[in-house]
Please model this.
Amino acid sequence: MAIEPRGTRPGRMLDPTRIMIYGVLIVAAVYYLLPLYVMIVTSMKGMPEIRLGNIFSPPVEVTFEPWVKAWDTACTGLYCEGLKVGFWNSVQILIPSVIISIMVASVNGYALANWRFRGSEVFFTILIFGSFIPYQVMLYPLVILTRELGIFGSLYAVILIHTIFGMPILTLLFRNYFASLPQELFKAGRVDGAGFWGIFLKIMVPMSLPIFVVAVILQVTGIWNDFLFGVIFAGTKNFPMTVQLNNIVNSTQGVKEYNVNMAATILTGAVPLLIYFLSGKYFVRGIAAGAVKG
Model:
């Protein structure tokens, strides 16, 4: 008797569907990677080579002087101290804003998912509504609020604003993630005598690494790339990195140094890119688990 081959039938190498999928992916990859390539090669060229006009050609003579200048001596307004000052301002804004907003939002989401209280649905509806309010609508009241608190023009004002605006969407993500976990675990914890914090810290948090990674990526990206809150609330001596990048790129004095501008842009975007690449495998998993559910 003839032996029938087993396993899945091999697909054709030139399958039309496969060709279309890979074609779309290649076009999308080129579309997003080409500007990054231009930025990198331009940042490694000297100005005489840039003036030749071929932006796609690799550098004939590689130089890292634009990177050093962008970091250390580029003029960001009245001061010529480079991006390093704005980098440390952004770090001081980022760390407490991310930690506080995620801590508060995770507890909010846990309480809304597992510890229903009177008015919880109304509270959740208000939070959802707050997620979609444009930032510009709240600017003037927030300026008055931070002025009355005595923190306007300081890093504390920017930290407070980012913490407040990050909590609605993070609470939504955490609430839906905790609601998707098996309720038997929560009930078993109650039977064993664990209270509110015991269940949260010993059961929920260890099972929630993907959604915490999603929250960190969302907050780091949003806070680090923010320009509006930084330029309004930080004060001239506390500008974050994005505001200083804007001052470097839009400077109208002297010669336009495109290599320095490109190097400064890459340095400004390096932190969220690094965070995403290091933890990206958890991102899709956490987004899917924390998606909006009925």
In short: The mean pLDDT is 83. Residues 16-63 form one domain. The radius of gyration is 25 Å.
